[in-house]
Amino acid sequence: xxxxxxxxxxxxxxxxxxxxxxxxxxxxxxxxxxxxxxxxxxxxxxxxxxxxxxxxxxxxxxxxxxxxxxxxxxxxxxxxxxxxxxxxxxxxxxxxxxxxxxxxxxxxxxxxxxxxxxxxxxxxxxxxxxxxxxxxxxxxxxxxxxxxxxxxxxxxxxxxxxxxxxxxxxxxxx
Length: 174
Description:
Elements: H1 7-30, H2 35-59, H3 75-101, H4 105-111, H5 114-127, H6 133-150, H7 161-173
Helix pairs in contact: 1-4, 2-3, 3-7, 5-6, 5-7
């Protein structure tokens, strides 16, 4: 029998479960907290979780502290980092919370899968990444599902603006 390290698999499952629970839990709190204030809690909470994870790893001697081989950041790197922080860390969470305010939590959780579509399209267009047939099929299926989930026959143009907000946040994160 193979000796497998199940820690990465367990971490992936926990991360997926927490991500899936984030929209319903945020939706519960949006009844009491303004969307912008709620958005401001997302990344500090993530930072605290990562700090605790690092502390636990260090406690169990699983954290390798050798970073001397890493290249230092350049001025151009800092511009990209600041752009990512502004768009992905501030604008996208605010857009998500406003979209989530009037969307079913279950719908929002499913719409958050559109981030994979946005990431794939950005990788292909901006970075000339090659993508296989199965990935394109997944992109197509997620896009079609997102269109169906966003459909609102009573809406002004047939789409729910709140669902479009959730999808817009995914594009900003992509």
